[in-house]
Design goal:
Helix content is about 85%, strand content about 0%. Helix 1 runs parallel beside helix 3. It has one domain: Chorismate mutase (Chorismate Mutase Domain, subunit A, Up-down Bundle), CATH 1.20.59.10.
């Protein structure tokens, strides 16, 4: 049987991986923001967001994760991405 300390170390490792992937995601979305700004595209793309929500809902079910939790997390990520895109698009 695993000790509580071992289980917590596993959780810490998973958290590290999640944060590394989230940081990488934001690096890519910042590049998207620069692309959108240079092509005069809006910061928000509701069609893309709807597709992402549907995709996340399906993935969450495949992984046995609460779909509402997954959507809530995605909403927070999207809000930050849109804010970043708006910031990038502002004239200096």
């Amino acid at each position: 049987m695993e000790s509580l300390e071992d289980l917590r170390k596993s959780i810490d490792n998973i958290d590290n991986a999640i944060l590394a992937m989230l940081a990488e995601r934001f690096k890519v979305t910042n590049r998207v923001g620069h692309y959108k700004a240079s092509h005069n595209l809006p910061a928000r793309d509701m069609d893309r967001e709807a597709l992402q929500h549907a995709r996340i809902q399906e993935l969450s079910r495949q992984y046995g994760l609460d779909p509402q939790l997954a959507s809530s997390i995605l909403d927070q990520v999207i809000a930050k991405v849109v804010a970043n895109h708006e910031q990038i698009a502002r004239p200096c």
